[in-house]
């Protein structure tokens, strides 16, 4: 029967098969997301009742309760401004460091790179105790500083540095030389030539850093104790009844709200992220 | 505009000596071409003049200023790179005006100079385009335009035509020549293509292993090469070099002659019994306007001959004749005999 199909019909059949296969593969990824949105609109009893993706009645009031239960708007803002600050600082520092490692010849450059790689291999959990003592000694406990400084100068900064380094390695030497002939300093070459050309890599670093900072849980848990200084991951785990049991309907409504900025950022920059990973993988 | 003076200029990368003491005088407004085989140091020498490479030793003057320690942008030179090195994130207008912007030239003046250069290079219609939207020749013109707007004393070209196809290369070559005529600036041009060197240069500098082999006009280099290297490097196909004994048929040789050079285009084919030398045609290469014959001489060497019109068949026996004025005599050290005897 297949033999009697024309080329275009065969192509259509193939396309339908592929689409169905991809939809099946996507279910484990999409279903929890839909479940979260659906449960955020249900009552606490309905969540554990007959499983259904469509709520019997839509409880929009959950979203109001989320803001009444704790200073959620403040916590949301905390996460947002910390993530933006960490992203901006990481972009600045990792692009400078990546440029230096890729383009400058200096004594010990290889050692620095090795040191950075080895730092990446140390699990975050191992460094949390010395970091705790360091932060306490600096008098920065229960402030947002550790949530900014530790990612910028920690694993996220290093990952960003390596990503930028890979990108800058592929930068044609002649462009830098043209910059020199035009009167630019090293810093000027970085700022006016290398950076504008590395927008895909910067976008990737920005996304990774923003996501990491947005989802950071261990550090806020260790360093933050005041409710109004909580960030979103801490705040989400704080939707509990007096006995410590989770209030799922509020937690899932709040989680739905927490996902929104991530989705926006990803949708805005997904082309550049994919481009950047492809470039750094192939050219690096 | 400005002259250029190199005195015992040297460049070492670690222990490797790349430029081994170059002396050169370039007059104001002169078009000088550096040629030589790969690795001879011609690009390094150009980069030393531009300031992109430090000078290890010696003195480099532009005009009456010693510029050994002067930053590239303050030397009054502009460079056109082999890869054009256009900034991909800027359009043609911004690419051309970038250097002026860095030097804080006021906006209106910048615009005026860019428009002037664009008109000169016929880039007016392309000013809003990005480099990726330009052809190779257009990119090359933008790169030249970027050099022009800075009003440099000296233009430096680093193999600027090597990325273009043959036809465009010929066209751009004539555009560069016309540009030099119009601007009258001092220009230093690096190429490994000796046709480019011969057609463009007022003066050619032949380099080998970081040393200057000969400096002279294209005609001087072609007609009176100082040594076998220059004799064979300038001219295409390259000059035949025969041991003195094998070239005895050409007539009397100055004392001390070890080898005799004769250009393929200066040899003529005659009947075998009437030739000064004789041999057998091994290969015939038809190139349209002329043919290139590979002739195996009776003495054992192979000689190249360029002839117009009909060429003998392969395996045919031929005689070769040359005018004595076209013969070049070299001593055992490879230097031209006229030098040995003044």
From TrEMBL, chain B:
InterPro entries: AAA+_ATPase (IPR003593), ABC_transporter-like_ATP-bd (IPR003439), ABC_transporter-like_CS (IPR017871), ABC_transpr_MalK-like (IPR015855), ABC_transpr_MalK/UgpC-like (IPR047641), Mo/tungstate-bd_C_term_dom (IPR008995), P-loop_NTPase (IPR027417), Transp-assoc_OB_typ2 (IPR013611). Residues 4-234 form the ABC transporter domain. It is found in: Cell inner membrane. It is a peripheral membrane protein. GO terms for cellular component: ATP-binding cassette (ABC) transporter complex, substrate-binding subunit-containing; maltose transport complex. Keywords: ATP-binding, Nucleotide-binding, Transport. Pfam families: ABC_tran, TOBE_2. Coiled coil: none annotated. PROSITE patterns: ABC_TRANSPORTER_1, ABC_TRANSPORTER_2. GO terms for molecular function: ABC-type maltose transporter activity; ATP binding; ATP hydrolysis activity. It comes from the Bacteria. NCBIfam families: PRK11650.1. Belongs to the ABC transporter superfamily. This is sn-glycerol-3-phosphate ABC transporter ATP-binding protein UgpC. It comes from Neoaquamicrobium microcysteis. The gene is ugpC.
């Amino acid at each position: 029967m297949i033999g009697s199909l024309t080329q275009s019909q065969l192509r259509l059949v193939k396309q339908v098969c592929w689409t169905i296969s991809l939809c099946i593969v996507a279910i484990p990824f999409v279903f929890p997301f839909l479940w979260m949105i659906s449960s955020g609109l249900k009552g606490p009893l309905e969540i554990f009742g007959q499983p259904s993706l469509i709520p019997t009645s839509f409880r929009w009031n959950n979203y109001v309760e989320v803001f009444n239960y704790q200073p959620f708007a403040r916590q949301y803002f905390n996460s947002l401004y910390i993530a933006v600050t960490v992203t901006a600082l990481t972009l600045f520092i990792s692009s400078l460091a990546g440029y230096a490692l890729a383009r400058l010849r200096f004594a010990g450059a290889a050692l620095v790179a090795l040191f950075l790689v080895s730092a990446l291999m140390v699990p975050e959990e191992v460094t949390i105790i010395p970091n705790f003592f360091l932060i306490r000694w600096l008098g920065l406990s229960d402030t947002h500083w550790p949530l900014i400084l530790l990612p910028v100068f920690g694993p996220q900064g290093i990952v960003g540095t390596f990503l930028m380094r890979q990108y800058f390695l592929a930068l044609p030497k002649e462009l830098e030389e043209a910059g020199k002939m035009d009167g630019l300093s090293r810093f000027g070459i970085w700022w006016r030539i290398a950076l504008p050309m590395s927008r895909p890599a910067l976008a990737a670093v920005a996304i990774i850093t923003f996501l990491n900072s947005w989802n950071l849980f261990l550090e806020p848990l260790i360093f933050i104790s005041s409710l109004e200084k909580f960030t979103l991951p801490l705040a989400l785990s704080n939707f509990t009844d007096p006995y410590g049991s989770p209030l799922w309907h509020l937690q899932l409504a709040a989680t739905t709200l927490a996902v929104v900025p991530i989705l926006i950022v990803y949708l805005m920059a997904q082309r550049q992220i994919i481009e950047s990973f492809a470039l750094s993988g192939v050219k690096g | 505009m400005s002259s250029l003076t190199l005195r015992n200029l040297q460049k070492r990368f670690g222990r490797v000596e790349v430029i081994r003491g170059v002396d050169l005088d370039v007059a104001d407004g002169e078009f000088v071409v550096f040629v030589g085989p790969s690795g001879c140091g011609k690009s390094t020498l150009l980069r030393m003049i531009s300031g992109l490479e430090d000078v290890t030793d010696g003195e480099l003057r532009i005009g009456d200023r010693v510029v050994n320690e002067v930053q590239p942008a303050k030397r009054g030179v502009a460079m056109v790179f082999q890869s054009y090195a256009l900034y991909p994130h800027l359009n043609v207008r911004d690419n051309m005006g970038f250097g002026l912007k860095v030097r804080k030239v006021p906006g209106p003046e910048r615009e005026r100079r860019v428009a002037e250069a664009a008109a000169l290079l016929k880039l007016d219609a392309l000013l809003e385009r990005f480099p990726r939207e330009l052809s190779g020749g257009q990119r090359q013109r933008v790169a030249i335009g970027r050099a022009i707007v800075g009003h440099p004393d000296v233009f430096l070209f680093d193999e600027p035509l090597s990325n273009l196809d043959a036809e465009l290369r010929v066209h751009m070559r004539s555009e560069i020549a016309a540009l030099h005529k119009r601007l009258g600036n001092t220009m230093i041009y690096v190429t490994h293509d000796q046709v480019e060197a011969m057609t463009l240069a007022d003066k050619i500098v032949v380099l080998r292993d970081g040393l200057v082999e000969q400096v002279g006009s294209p005609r001087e280099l072609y007609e009176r090469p100082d040594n076998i290297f220059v004799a064979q490097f300038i001219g295409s196909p390259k000059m035949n070099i025969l041991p003195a004994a094998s070239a005895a048929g050409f007539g009397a040789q100055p004392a001390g002659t070890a080898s005799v050079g004769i250009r393929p285009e200066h040899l003529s084919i005659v009947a075998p019994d009437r030739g000064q030398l004789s041999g057998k045609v091994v290969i015939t290469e038809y190139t349209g306007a002329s043919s290139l014959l590979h002739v195996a001489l009776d003495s054992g060497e192979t000689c190249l001959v360029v002839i117009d019109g009909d060429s003998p068949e392969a395996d045919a026996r031929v005689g070769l004749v040359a005018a004595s004025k076209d013969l070049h005599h070299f001593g055992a050290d490879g230097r031209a005999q006229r030098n040995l005897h003044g």
